[in-house]
Design goal:
Number of strands: 20
Number of helices: 14
Shape: globular
Helix content: 25-40%
CATH architecture of the largest domain: 2-Layer Sandwich
Structural class: alpha+beta
Bound molecules: adenosine-5'-diphosphate
Length: 456
């Protein structure tokens, strides 16, 4: 309405995703307020926001993870919404509850849904009930009784993988190849689960030897509509951290993808899911196996935006505010192919973070090239947070064109002052097996080990 002040959205995050959310707010006519820690004071992306509020010292526990500081910032700027981005508090059900209790709208699903999906055993149970295929495994957290655990493993068949029910970030997992290793692995994984996640519950799955990581992007509104927006392949991972993502997943029959996509959208309707989400699957021998659901926007959402032409972050904010999805499933079209390279400030050999001052920064451009970054010349990359400094995303008419554009874009990217993984991306984009498509989740680790052997 004319003359009425726009609603305010507070961004409880930093870096490229904070900037991405500011951009979505611009499109929606919302006032965007960033929060920042003392380590991020004066950072360039804050200039893009309508306002910025300091929420505490560099340590994330005292700033980006600080409920009280974030809620006080929301009150101070008159925000009616909080967007948590990814990482930090984005999947924290207690935070979702605190935001709701303060009378604010969290851009994300309800605390109850977050709690179910945050418990991987509960999530699998919900998916089995909704008819989504899962990795064969224990139906519940494992009992204390060693004999019973051994029987479960024997039923599933070795190799198996032990996983923390409350796990995330690729931690708290252990492969067990034979029964003689089981008892020790059980104890160690349970201790890790307690230490990392404050929850000693662990469960067991069949360990798949050569899976790909394929995921389905979904979005659902509060009026009962749910869509799947296509698939992504994120198999190129190191220590379970994704490095290159693409859409669509190469070499999988579209009929198979449509079937699993429709199943994901249907299960959103069944569980009353509202918001964006990602169903993560392992894909092996022509079959999908659900592993977990992420109840937030993901780092790799741009490849889906590139092939669908949709603004997923704007849609995410809209459905959280009660808006209706603006299209039907048959109107979701994907075109061409998109690839994303995550650029990290890290040592190219050891992968140790490389914080510091960026002294030169040139980002690629041209047809089909998008760069999502918060970095400019003079940016200080703090040691306190994730080392990702940006994402180079390309689009092409087909996969070959997308890869060719990715190679050209990575050749043009210049970053000085901090070390980056740009050279690794250049090598991988020219790797024959990756170029052929459909490498497994183990490919990159093996490739790195092989390179290490050659260069000693
Ligand atoms: P996290 O939440 O910690 O990321 P996930 O359950 O999503 O854990 O698994 C992360 C990665 O671990 C997968 O992408 C895959 O590479 C590997 N993984 C997990 N479960 C299995 C399994 N049953 N068999 C083989 N690899 C697995």
């Amino acid at each position: 309405m004319a003359g009425e002040a726009p609603d305010t959205l507070l961004i409880a995050n930093r870096g490229e995703i904070a900037l991405r959310i500011v951009r979505a707010c611009r499109r929606l006519g919302l006032r965007a307020v960033c929060t920042y820690s003392e380590a991020d004071r004066g950072a360039a992306w804050l200039d893009a926001a309508d306002d910025a509020i300091c929420i505490g010292p560099a340590a994330a526990a005292k700033s980006y993870l600080n409920f009280a500081a974030l809620l006080a910032a929301a009150e101070a700027c008159g925000a009616s919404m909080i967007h948590p981005g990814y990482g930090f508090l984005s999947e924290n059900a207690d935070f979702a509850e605190a935001v709701a209790a303060a009378g604010l709208t969290l851009i994300g699903p309800s605390a109850a849904v977050m709690r179910t999906m945050g418990d991987k055993v509960a999530a699998k149970r919900a998916m089995i009930a909704a008819g989504v295929p899962c990795v064969p495994g224990s139906e519940d957290v494992l009992p204390d009784d060693r004999g019973a655990v051994a029987r479960i493993a024997a039923d599933i068949g070795y190799p198996v993988i032990l996983k923390a029910a409350g796990g995330g970030g690729g931690r708290g997992m252990r492969v067990v190849r034979q029964q003689s290793e089981l008892a020790d692995a059980f104890l160690v994984t349970r201790q890790e689960a307690q230490r990392f996640f404050g929850n000693p519950g662990i469960y067991m799955e069949k360990f798949l030897e050569k899976p790909r990581h394929v995921e389905i992007q979904v979005i659902a509104d509060a009026h009962g509509a749910a869509l799947w927006l296509g698939d992504r392949d994120c198999s190129l991972q190191r220590r379970h951290q994704k490095l290159i993502e693409e859409a669509p997943a190469p070499g999988i029959a579209r009929s198979l993808i449509s079937e699993i996509g429709a199943r994901c959208a249907a299960s959103c309707r069944e569980i009353g899911y509202v918001g964006v989400g990602t169903f993560e699957f392992l894909f092996q021998d022509g079959r999908f196996y659900f592993i977990e659901m992420n109840t937030r926007i993901q780092v790799e959402h741009p490849v889906t935006e590139m092939v669908t032409g949709l603004d997923i972050v704007a849609m995410q904010i809209d459905v959280a505010r009660g808006g209706q999805l603006p299209l039907r499933q048959d109107q979701v079209r994907t075109e061409g192919h998109s690839v994303e390279c995550r650029i990290n400030a890290e040592d190219p050999r050891t992968f140790a973070p490389s914080p510091g001052l960026v002294t030169r920064f040139h980002v690629p451009g041209g047809p089909g090239v998008r760069v999502d970054t918060h970095v400019v010349v003079g940016s200080d990359i703090p040691a306190h947070y994730d080392s990702m400094i940006g994402k180079v995303i390309v689009h092409g008419a087909d996969r070959a064109e997308a890869l060719s554009r990715a190679r050209a874009a990575l050749a043009e990217l210049t970053v000085e002052g901090v070390s980056t993984n740009a050279a690794l991306h250049r090598e991988l984009l020219s790797d024959a097996a990756f170029d052929a498509g459909s490498v497994t989740v183990h490919y990159l680790e093996n490739w790195l080990a092989e390179r290490e052997r050659r260069h000693g």
